[in-house]
Amino acid sequence: MDSSNRRRFVKNVGGIAIGAVAGSGVTRLLSSDEAPLAIPALPWPYVDLDPIAVAERAYLGYSNGGCMYGAFEGIIGELRTKLGAPFDTFPTTMMKYGGGGVAGWGSLCGALNGVAAAIYLLKDSKTGNDLISEIFNWYGVEKLPNYRPKTPKFEIATTISESQLCHVSVTKWANHTGFKTGSPERAERCAWLTASVAKYTTELLNKQLAGTYQRAHQTPAKVTLCLQCHGPSGTVANVHITGGQSNCTSCHHRHWAGGVEF
Amino acid sequence: MDSSNRRRFVKNVGGIAIGAVAGSGVTRLLSSDEAPLAIPALPWPYVDLDPIAVAERAYLGYSNGGCMYGAFEGIIGELRTKLGAPFDTFPTTMMKYGGGGVAGWGSLCGALNGVAAAIYLLKDSKTGNDLISEIFNWYGVEKLPNYRPKTPKFEIATTISESQLCHVSVTKWANHTGFKTGSPERAERCAWLTASVAKYTTELLNKQLAGTYQRAHQTPAKVTLCLQCHGPSGTVANVHITGGQSNCTSCHHRHWAGGVEF
After folding, report:
1. What local confidence, expressed as pLDDT, does residue B249 receive?
2. A181 contacts in B (CB within 8 Å)?
């Protein structure tokens, strides 16, 4: 295939195979050999999904690649099945990196990392950030996991994490149930949690598609109180949190704010 | 274009435009209309990159899309410039989601989230997890940012975060320097940090390509001591951290372990 043929073929990729689905056109870049190549413009299309199908796919995905992969693949995999391109061009398995709070580091819950990544494929940043904040706030106050898979390995107790971090979320559950973090019950809990987060995200995406979405969970007042001084526009302004938070006193014990000791 | 033509065209995508670069072949899926579609198999190819070029691209990327996007685009953008496909098929701007610890939530540092995502495009999970742990440990003990861009907006002081979290990392710097988190100096600090993390990651990837990579940063002994009991295989086993951690006592004050009060 000479270069002029390759260029013609590549134009076909943008015009027909990918652009036709993305609808809103494609972004063109010059590759190293100067042939124009096509990336479907973001956001990619969303169609109404069955939250149960997403949850089951996320639950299965957890077994195949952990929490971040499971949550991402739950949503994006369902869109791939329904729409094909452009979702079939995405190397979904890369999302395994977020397992256990990224490579087992216990930082951000991988289910949250996964749905946040998926949301930014489907929404502009303003809409995406609002959805992410709704989900993160919900995660902090909800008794989770709240989705029971159709064929579970165990029954799983629920806890409220008051945090979006893997380490805090898992430790609260382990302390409550007595199960060790290396146990199959803990893994099953995280599989249910992955399904729960993917399901809630899908419900919100469906509502937004239908025009019925409303923000249901806000940053708790006790956090807003702290951020009045410590947030970016406060007098102290030493905390770089603009999206939200569930509980400052998980780490900051015996702290005074507004004349009140927490 | 009828379906048989489309099928033939799509085969060309796998065989020539993408498969020829990926080298190791492509993964074939069935889309909703049953035409075979091609995703380049992971890991994608890595070639030696100039760490300074990556750092400058990451620094610029921070201005265009925040810390996670900047770090990811620093590495993947350089590979796209050098190799074209398959990197030109990736919707890089989705990585904006991780800015400010994901939508401004202050969780995982977006620069770390970005390089971790990039690494999983380029490495298998075992190799990737080792690289991520090396980078995360380095981030916890290094005076950062340690890369000064060629045309900086301000000069930036360094701090040691002892944490991989955006909130902790920024607050330590803000407390040290007195700059507010909403200030342009704080944004510049995070732009330098994004460049620093992308640069260090590239240096490691280059060493690994050359066969000279060696793990330089391990989990600190004071953390290993805590995890002896609290880690997944300990007697308490209520902490789900398998990758590492920099400092437990940032949050867990006045805690006893092994007869020592921290």
Report:
1. 82
2. 231-232, 237-240
Q: Is the model's pLDDT at A1 over the cut of 70?
A: no
Residue B256 lies in a domain: yes
- Based on the domain organization, do A61 and A26 belong to the same domain? no
Per-residue pLDDT of B230-241, as tens digits, reads: 999 899 999 999
Flag whether residue B207 sits within 8 Å of chain A, measured between CB atoms: no
Residue A34 located in a structural domain: yes
pTM: 0.87
Contacts of A191 (CB under 8 A, 6+ apart): A59, A62, A63, A70, A149
- Domain encompassing residue A166: 51-210
Which of A49, A120, A127 has the most B C-beta neighbours within 10 Å, making it the best mutation to test the interface with B? A120
For residue B120, give the nearest of A94, A108, A165 by CB distance: A94
Dihedral, CA of residue A28, residue A32, residue A34 and residue A35, to nearest 10: -60
Task: Determine contact, residues B35/B59, Cβ cutoff 8 Å.
Answer: no
DSSP assignment letter at B13: I
Q: Give B195 to chain A, closest Cα distance, Å.
A: 19
A95 & A180 share domain: yes
| Segment B207-235, tens digit of pLDDT | 999 999 999 999 999 899 889 999 998 99
- Note the pLDDT tens digit of each residue in B126-169: 999 999 999 999 999 999 999 999 999 999 999 999 999 999 99
Residue A107's closest CA among B48, B236, B225, B169?
A: B169
Cβ contacts (< 8 Å) between B10 and chain A: which residues?
17
In this structure, are A176 and A67 located in the same domain?
Answer: yes
Domain co-membership, B200 together with B78: yes
Residue B94 sits at the chain A interface (C-beta within 8 Å): yes
Max intra-chain CA distance, chain A:
75
Distance from CA of B210 to the nearest CA of A (A): 23
Report if residue A45 sits inside a domain. no
Confidence bin at B38 (pLDDT 50/70/90): low
- B108, B115, B223: best to mutate for the A interface, most A CBs within 10 A: B108
DSSP 8-class letter at B27: E
Examine the pLDDT at B16 and tell me if it is beyond 80.
no
Total domains in chain B come to 3
Residue B45 belongs to some domain of the structure: no
Assembly ipTM: 0.86
Chain B CB contacts of A1 below 8 Å: 16
In degrees and rounded to multiples of 5, residue A26 shows phi and psi of: -130, 155
Indicate if A199 and A257 belong to the same structural domain. no
Query: Do A23 and A56 reside in the same domain of the chain?
Result: no
pLDDT for the residue numbered A97: 98
Both B32 and B78 in one domain: the answer is no
B150: Cβ contacts below 8 Å, ≥ 6 apart: B56
Q: What is the pLDDT of residue A23?
A: 33
Same structural domain for residues A114 and A76?
yes
pLDDT tens by residue, A40-71: 889 999 999 999 999 999 999 999 999 999 99
